[in-house]
């Protein structure tokens, strides 16, 4: 296998969320999610890392990736409440699920299976990664 060089670009957005599922009682939600289940939610300054592999023969232009992620991800989530996003109607807005959702929104837009990894930094101490199935 040829040496694979990857490049990672960081993107930022701020959003609110509440860890909660209608499938569980209020009490169980509180037990599982603790203060992250607070009724009115709370916010994070998210950093999303998008890793793609580079191909010297047909480089994915940096500006192209920047435009794509800004349009599809940053504009969609910045200054929003994630629980109201259509994709999160039956899915808890955890960092894991956000990473998976962002992967799903980008994987078909980035040609030649070049998307390698989505990283979501939610807080100073919590980082989530998704590399596809
Ligand atoms: Ni949170």
Walkthrough of the structure:
With 133 residues, this protein is an alpha+beta fold. It has one domain: 2-Layer Sandwich (Tetrahydropterin Synthase, Chain A), CATH 3.30.479. The protein contains 3 helices and 5 strands; from the N terminus they run βαβαβαββ. It has helices at 26-33, 62-77, 95-106; strands spanning 6-17, 42-53, 80-81, 115-123, 126-130. The chain has a 5-stranded mixed β-sheet. The longest helix is centred in the middle third of the chain and has 16 residues, at 62-77. The chain is elongated and about 55 Å long. The two termini are 20 Å apart. The mean pLDDT is 93.
In the CATH hierarchy, what is the class?
Alpha Beta
Using the 3D structure, state the CATH architecture. 2-Layer Sandwich
Biggest sheet, strands in spatial order? Answer: 3-1-2-4-5
What's the overall geometry? elongated
Q: Supply the number of helical segments.
A: 3
Range of helix content: 25-40%
Write down the CATH topology.
Tetrahydropterin Synthase, Chain A
**What portion of the residues fall into strands of 2 or more residues?**
25-35%
Structure characteristics:
Tetrahydropterin Synthase, Chain A; alpha+beta; single chain; 27% helix; 5-stranded mixed β-sheet; elongated; 133 residues; binds nickel (II) ion
